[in-house]
Each structure stands twice: as structure tokens, then as C-alpha cells.
């Protein structure tokens, strides 16, 4: 089991000082640990319950008034790690203060965390498994010698360097918690060395069996309830003969009650040794434990000297020339090594077995009855018949053992040689290590032992060479770390020792390649949709931070100004919302066409021209042939273009849409009034008639037309003026009243009955005429009201009418 944190991990790819965050390795109540490219780890101090992940990845205080003394906690954490590592702690593990908390980076040598190898770890050779576990145990013993317990031993805290012993990290949790005033629940309900020992045994169980052990709490609850322990013994998953010592250590470490074992006891058990309790009554100190016995190098057995075959003698020399003691010794050794003679003796094959034995016989005492010089005795004869009937190594060996001077010892030896040769031929035909080893096991002193051993050595050397080439090929693929490199390894070594790891690394490399390709495609398109698609596909990709930055830049916000080309009009993004469209109550100039007043709601933002389309902007369209009207000589480029019909305005909008690839168009009448009012519900812009001269070029008091306003003077008596000379309204839009009246998309209508209320254009009514809004340089108070609308034949042109542009925004 491992601790977990409720705090969301930081985004992969975020930079912390000079380092970049990779994937999350491990979460505890105190820290979140991440990998870093090039090897290493970064720990982020994020106390569970005291902090939460806020905007931009910053940690903020949450649910607690306790001051987060994170810097002190980080220093305590590092001090504990250094103390536990006995001086082997990286010197660059220094605090980095950012994001409202503290980080520290610790470089690690080439290697990987054990959590990345859990799928294959339980398939390790016994020696490798024992070595790693003893390294972890030694680290815990060293830390406890300086008063530091770990408390969270797991595969995520074990680092396996390419060279050297395994390392255990994460000793500083308790020290940091103490500084922060937090109380950590004891792991598995156990504290100190007992907790570390139980956790180490849990990890050993997982590595050996490939299974996760039930928690201490689950097992303890089952015991209290009188139920069966849910822990399946490790010996039921693996060979007890091969892993006997480790199984015993796991059973001791995971004992629920009466467990007074120490880490030292555990290490002795894993090492295959017995912990000797010193005699406390003696004055002398106990002798140090003996080192584990060193396995001697295997000696190649030499072909034994075969005994001289006996000559069936006469009465005067019945057994001349037979070194019977040598024969007996050889045959006894052969019988003992094969272990089969014991079976024959115990099963009664030669001594009166039970009914149903392969060959029933009677109890035949050795050398029973007189032995004739020219033939066997009765017992010898019956024993030989039994041996010949069974016709196995065991039967002949048993005969020679019981009758070392028997009449048939030569025949027995001949049959043993034949069986030896047959077994050898079988080994030669299979021509495998297992075949030759099976021969040596059956005939440890056989005729072909030297030859078998030489072939075994040769085959083993070949396998060692293949293994070395396998490892070299994998290391080369790992260094290159590409899909092609791993495919090359898997093709050359489909049954290699590193196939599973190569497949995992290939998948990771393929994902990295796809990550890079997807982000490159998003950059080429450069659209919000493309970057969002990348983030959705690779939520933990290495370029997520960049993609989110681009998404933020491309996200439209109210008030943002968009200008898609040098000669394009600027448009301002307006917020979605609702407003009251039409003449207000009490408006003495209100016309029937401006009523009834109604609520119009915009469900999405849109953009509208910051100013009226100017002569200079119009000329860019004329230059391409898309616009036909040639502005009159003397027209100022910065002034609004006039003498354009409704269709001329449509042609310009279509050209602009083709040029930019965006849906530019004329604004609807509802959009125009929403933009002109800028949240003002009154009759006039800025709330009163007297403000009109500050916002637009109108017929002011300086003119002599009868309908002029007498409340202000705008300084221009005749004609349009350059755009943006007056003050903008609250939306940042210029000349919404006066200067030039502006064509909109809507058809002329007698009133607002049945007109859309969602901001769309009214395409019903007298569509040979279209609406112009805002009044012009010659308009008085009646016509520069915010609700004033004028219907005009769509083909007409004059010196008072122009237009501004609108843009539909992507959803």
C-alpha cells in the first residue's frame, strides 16, 4: 500500500527552476514526487488538507488557518534524507521556491524506479530478487541507526541504478510533517521499525508472487471476526525449494501477532542463515555471524575406472581376478546418487513386495544356500530374474548391491552400460542443455560424463554469448530510444530477456512520437480547435503547457481587438448578453417602426467593427476587382467610405471573408443597436442629447439646418470627418452615431412584430429596401437617437451612408 494525496498533481511539462516536471511517481500526505527528463526526481511540498491546487498550478491555503512553513518543512525533509543516506545524498537537492510552495530536485544516476518494473520483477532470478531486497533492508537499518524511520516503503520509493545497490528514497516525510504540525497515521497500524519491516515484507511478497498482499487492516479485521486470513501464502505461488529462505522471511515479516522480529533478523533469514541469540550469561561478546557459505566451483567428474569383469572360475579358483570391493563401492555410489535403489528396496521389488508390484519376489537373503562354482545359487538366480524382468538402472544396481559377488555381476554391468549408452544417445539426439543435464543427473559417474560436461560448457558459452549480444542490442535500442530501434531489437531477439521491457519502452517511444507529431500539426494549423484537440488527446503530453498557452492566446474575450491583416478593419469582441431593443417609453420622437420594444438575447459573443470602413480599406478591395465603386478624388483615406450601396457593402464583406478565411459580414440590426447602446437603455448615447457632440459628427449648433441640435457644437458644419476623432462608447466603438449612417443586414419593416429575438437579421418584410442606422453628419436629435432606424432602397447611394463590418466568432 502507498499513501495518496487529494491534491491534484502539477501539469507535466511545467518548469520548476531549471527543471521540467515529468510524470507523477508517488503521492504522500506531504509531497508529490515527479520524474524529470535525464534522470532524477522533484518533490513538491503539498501538505494534504492544508493546501489546494489553484489557478496556474499555484498552491493556496485551504481549510486550515495553520501557516504553511513549507521552507522549514523542506529543510527538515532534506536533512532527514541526508541523515538516512549516510552521506550518499545528492548535493544538488536544494529548495526551489515557486508556485506558492517549495520544491527540491535530486539527481539520480542512470536507472529506473522499481515501480516501473513491477510487471517483470517477480520473474527475476532468485539471487537478483534477494539482492534488491537486502539492499532495501540495509538502507532501512542504516536510517534507523541514526534515528530515522521511513514509514512509506513501496516500489515507488526504490530506485535501481544501472550500477550499484538499490536505493531507498523518501525518508523525510515524518520530519516534514512534524514541522507542519501534521499527524501521519502509522502505516498499516504499525510504527517505527515494525512498520518498516511489515512494509518491506509486503514489497517482497509483491515482487516474489506478482500479487498485492491484502492490507494489515483487512487481515486484522478478518482475524478479529474469526474469519480466514485473506493473505495467500507466498509458497502457493512459487517454488518453495527455490525461494525457501525468502518465503520464511515474508511469513515472519507479515505475522499479525507475536512478531518480535527485527530488520536484522529478516536480513539473516533472506540470506539463508539462522540468527543466533548470544549467551547473555557469558562475559564474552558473541562472535559475529558467519558469512553465507561460498558455493565451490563445479568440478568436472572424470570417467571412472570400470571394474574388471569377473571370470566364472573353477572350484579351485572360483572368484580369481575380480576386485569386488571396488565394484561394490562404485555400484553403491551409483545407487545412492540415482536414488532409485532405495525405491526398489522399499517397494519390495526384490524382497517380497505387495501384490501389484512390477515384479513380485520373495525375501531373498544375500548368498542364500550354497553357491556352485559353475552356477548361481537359488537366491542369486531369483534376484537376477527379478532384475532382468524390471530391466532398469535401479533393478541392476539393487542386484549388484545385494550380491556383490553374484554370478551375474558381469551381465548386470553390461546392462548398466547399455542403459548408459541409450541415455547418452537420447541426450545427443535432443542436443539441448536440459538433455545433457538429465543424462548427468541419471548417470553422474557414467561412461560419457566428460563428453557431456564439455558439450554443456560449449552450449552454455553459446547461450552466454547470445545473452550478451541480447543485452548489448537492448542497450543500443535503449540509448537510441526510438520506435525503430526497439522494433529492430524485437525482430532480432523475439525471445530475448528484455522483450517485455522493450515492448513497454517501444510503446512509450511511440506515444512520445505521436505526441510530437500531434503538437507539430497543431502548430501548423495554429487554431484553437487544433490545440484543444492536442490537449484532449495527450492530457499529460510534453507540450501541454505550450498548447494551453496558445489556447489562452487564441481564446476570444470581450474587449479583445482582432485585426487580421494590415488593410483589414479592426473588430472588437462584444460579450454575450441581453438588452431592450427599440424606442423607450417617454421618447417624444419615437416612430411606429421602432416598436414594440422587446428583449433580445445573444447566446454567444460576436465582434463588430471598431470604426466605420474607411476609404483606404475600401481601396484595398477595389485593387483586387472585388469592389467596383471608385472613391471620388479628394476623398480622405481615414474618412468613412460613402456613396456605397447595400450591395457594395455586401461585396466588401464577401471579399474580406475570402481574404482572411473568417466569416466576416454586415452586422444585423439587433447587433448594431446592442453595440451602440453599450448597456445604455436611454434615448441618446451617453444618456443625454448634450453628449452627442462628444461621441459623433452630427448637425450641431454651428450648422444652420432647422433640425439641428442646439445643445452642443461639434465643430464640423458639412461632410464626414476621419474616423476615431470623437470619444468611443463603453464598448470601445467609435462613431456609432453621426459621421456616416451604416447599412445593416435587415430588410425594412413597419415595426418589430415577429422580428427575431436572438440577434438574427429580420429577412422578412420589404427586402428591396434595407435598414441604415446611427444617423450621419447632417442628422439632428430625431435621427441620432439610439433606436432611430431609416429604410432605404438597397441600390441607392449618397454622401451620408457607409457601413461597418461584423465577424461571427467560433464556438
Helix/strand structural class: alpha+beta
Strand content: 5-15%
Calculate the mean pLDDT score and round it: 81
Q: Give, in spatial order, the strands making up the sheet with the most strands.
A: 3-4-5-9-8
Number of strands: 23
Number of helices: 23
CA(first)-CA(last) distance: 45 Å
Largest sheet: 5 strands, antiparallel
Name the poorly predicted regions. 274-372
Written account of the structure:
With 811 residues, this protein is α+β, with helices and mostly antiparallel strands. Helices cover 37% and strands 11% of the residues. It has 23 helices and 23 strands. A five-stranded antiparallel beta sheet has the order 3-4-5-9-8, covered by helices on one side. Helix 3 (126-145) runs antiparallel to helix 8 (263-270). The two termini are 45 Å apart. The model is unreliable at 274-372 (pLDDT under 50).
Please tag this protein with its features:
single chain; 811 residues; alpha+beta; five-stranded antiparallel beta sheet; 23 helices; 23 strands; 11% strand
Quick structural overview:
With 811 residues, the chain is of the alpha+beta class. The protein is built from 23 helices and 23 strands.
Give the topology.
Blueprint: E1 15-16, E2 19-20, E3 24-27, E4 31-35, E5 41-45, E6 51-53, E7 59-61, H1 70-84, E8 95-98, E9 101-106, E10 111-113, H2 118-121, H3 126-145, E11 158-161, E12 167-168, H4 173-180, H5 192-209, H6 216-224, H7 244-253, H8 263-270, H9 324-338, H10 340-347, H11 378-390, H12 393-402, H13 409-430, H14 433-442, H15 449-480, H16 483-492, H17 499-525, H18 528-537, H19 544-554, E13 561-562, E14 571-574, E15 577-581, E16 598-602, E17 606-609, H20 615-624, H21 646-660, E18 664-665, H22 669-677, H23 692-695, E19 741-748, E20 766-773, E21 789-793, E22 801-803, E23 806-808
Parallel strand pairs: 19-22
Antiparallel strand pairs: 1-2, 3-4, 4-5, 5-9, 6-7, 8-9, 10-11, 11-12, 13-14, 14-17, 15-16, 17-23, 18-23, 19-20, 20-21
Helix pairs in contact: 1-4, 3-5, 3-8, 5-7, 7-8, 9-12, 10-12, 11-12, 12-13, 13-14, 14-15, 15-16, 16-17, 17-18, 18-19
Amino acid at each position: 500500500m502507498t499513501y495518496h494525496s487529494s491534491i491534484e498533481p502539477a501539469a507535466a511539462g511545467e518548469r520548476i527552476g531549471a527543471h521540467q516536471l515529468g510524470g507523477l511517481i508517488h503521492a504522500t500526505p506531504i509531497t508529490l514526487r515527479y520524474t524529470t527528463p535525464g534522470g532524477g526526481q522533484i518533490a513538491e511540498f503539498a501538505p494534504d488538507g492544508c493546501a489546494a491546487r489553484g489557478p496556474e498550478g499555484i498552491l493556496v491555503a485551504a481549510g486550515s488557518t495553520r501557516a504553511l512553513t513549507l521552507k522549514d518543512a523542506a529543510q527538515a525533509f532534506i536533512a532527514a534524507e541526508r541523515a538516512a543516506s549516510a552521506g550518499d545524498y545528492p548535493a544538488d537537492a536544494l529548495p526551489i521556491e515557486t508556485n506558492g510552495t517549495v520544491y527540491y530536485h535530486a539527481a539520480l544516476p542512470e536507472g529506473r524506479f522499481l515501480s516501473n518494473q513491477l510487471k517483470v520483477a517477480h520473474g527475476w532470478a532468485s539471487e537478483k530478487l534477494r539482492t534488491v531486497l537486502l539492499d532495501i533492508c540495509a538502507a532501512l537499518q542504516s536510517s534507523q541507526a541514526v534515528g530515522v524511520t521511513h514509514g512509506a516503503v513501496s516500489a515507488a520509493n526504490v530506485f535501481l541504478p544501472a550500477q550499484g545497490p538499490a536505493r531507498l528514497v523518501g525518508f523525510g516525510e515524518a520530519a516534514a510533517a512534524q514541522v507542519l504540525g501534521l499527524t501521519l497515521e502509522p502505516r498499516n497500524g504499525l510504527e517505527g521499525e515494525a512498520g518498516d519491516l511489515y512494509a518491506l515484507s509486503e514489497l517482497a511478497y509483491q515482487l516474489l508472487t506478482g500479487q498485492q498482499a491484502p492490507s494489515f487492516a483487512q487481515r486484522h479485521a478478518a482475524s478479529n471476526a474469526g474469519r480466514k486470513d485473506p493473505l495467500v501464502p507466498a509458497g502457493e505461488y512459487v517454488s518453495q525449494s527455490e525461494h525457501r529462505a525468502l518465503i520464511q522471511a515474508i511469513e515472519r515479516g507479515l505475522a499479525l501477532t507475536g512478531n518480535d522480529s527485527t530488520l536484522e533478523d529478516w536480513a539473516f533469514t533472506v540470506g539463508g542463515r539462522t540468527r543466533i541469540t548470544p549467551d547473555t550469561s557469558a562475559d564474552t561478546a558473541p562472535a559475529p555471524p558467519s558469512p553465507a557459505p561460498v558455493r565451490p566451483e563445479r568440478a568436472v567428474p572424470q570417467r571412472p575406472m570400470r571394474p574388471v569383469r569377473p571370470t566364472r572360475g573353477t572350484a579351485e579358483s572360483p572368484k580369481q581376478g575380480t576386485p569386488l570391493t571396488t565394484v561394490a563401492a562404485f555400484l553403491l555410489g551409483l545407487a545412492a546418487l540415482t536414488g532409485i535403489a532405495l525405491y526398489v528396496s522399499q517397494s519390495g521389488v526384490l524382497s517380497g513386495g505387495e501384490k501389484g508390484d512390477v515384479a513380485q519376489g520373495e525375501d531373498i537373503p544375500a548368498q542364500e544356500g550354497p553357491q556352485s562354482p559353475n552356477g548361481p545359487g537359488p537366491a542369486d538366480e531369483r534376484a537376477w530374474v527379478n532384475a532382468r524382468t524390471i530391466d532398469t538402472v535401479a533393478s541392476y544396481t539393487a542386484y549388484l548391491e545385494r550380491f556383490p559377488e553374484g554370478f551375474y555381476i558381469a551381465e548386470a554391468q553390461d546392462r548398466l552400460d547399455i542403459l548408459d549408452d541409450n541415455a547418452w544417445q537420447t541426450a545427443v539426439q535432443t542436443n539441448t542443455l536440459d538433455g545433457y543435464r538429465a543424462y548427468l543427473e541419471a548417470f553422474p559417474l557414467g561412461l560419457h560424463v566428460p563428453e557431456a560436461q564439455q558439450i554443456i560448457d560449449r552450449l552454455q558459452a553459446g547461450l552466454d554469448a547470445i545473452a550478451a549480444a541480447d543485452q548489448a542490442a537492448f542497450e543500443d535500442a535503449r540509448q537510441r530510444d526510438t520506435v525503430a530501434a526497439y522494433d529492430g531489437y524485437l525482430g532480432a531477439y523475439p525471445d530475448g530477456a528484455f522483450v517485455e521491457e522493450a515492448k513497454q519502452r517501444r510503446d512509450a517511444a511511440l506515444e512520445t512520437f505521436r505526441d510530437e507529431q500531434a503538437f507539430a500539426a497543431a502548430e501548423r494549423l495554429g487554431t484553437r480547435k487544433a490545440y484543444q484537440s492536442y490537449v484532449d488527446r495527450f492530457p499529460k503530453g510534453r507540450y501541454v503547457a505550450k498548447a494551453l498557452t496558445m489556447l489562452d492566446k487564441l481564446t476570444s474575450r470581450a474587449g479583445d481587438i482582432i485585426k487580421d491583416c494590415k488593410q483589414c478593419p479592426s473588430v472588437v469582441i462584444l460579450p454575450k448578453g441581453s438588452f431592450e431593443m427599440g424606442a423607450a417609453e417617454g421618447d417624444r420622437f419615437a416612430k411606429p417602426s421602432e416598436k414594440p420594444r422587446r428583449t433580445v438575447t445573444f447566446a454567444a459573443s460576436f465582434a463588430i467593427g471598431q470604426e466605420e470602413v474607411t476609404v483606404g480599406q475600401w481601396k484595398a478591395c477595389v485593387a483586387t476587382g472585388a469592389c467596383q465603386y471608385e472613391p471620388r478624388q479628394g476623398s480622405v483615406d481615414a474618412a468613412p467610405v460613402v456613396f456605397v450601396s447595400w450591395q457594395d457593402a455586401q461585396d466588401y464583406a464577401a471579399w474580406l471573408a475570402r481574404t482572411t478565411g473568417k466569416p466576416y459580414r454586415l452586422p444585423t440590426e439587433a447587433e448594431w443597436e446592442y453595440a451602440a447602446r453599450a448597456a445604455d437603455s436611454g434615448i441618446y448615447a451617453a444618456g443625454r442629447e448634450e453628449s452627442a457632440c462628444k461621441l459623433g459628427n452630427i448637425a450641431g449648433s454651428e450648422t444652420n439646418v432647422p433640425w439641428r441640435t442646439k445643445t452642443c457644437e461639434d465643430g464640423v458644419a458639412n461632410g464626414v470627418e476621419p474616423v476615431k476623432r470623437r470619444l468611443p462608447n463603453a464598448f470601445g466603438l467609435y462613431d456609432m452615431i453621426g459621421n456616416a449612417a451604416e447599412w445593416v443586414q435587415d430588410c425594412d419593416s413597419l415595426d418589430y412584430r415577429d422580428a427575431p429575438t436572438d440577434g438574427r437579421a429580420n429577412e422578412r418584410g420589404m427586402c428591396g429596401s434595407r435598414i441604415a442606422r446611427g444617423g450621419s453628419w447632417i442628422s439632428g436629435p430625431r435621427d441620432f437617437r439610439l433606436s432611430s432606424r431609416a429604410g432605404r432602397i438597397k441600390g441607392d447611394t449618397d454622401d451620408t451612408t457607409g457601413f461597418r463590418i461584423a465577424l461571427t466568432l467560433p464556438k
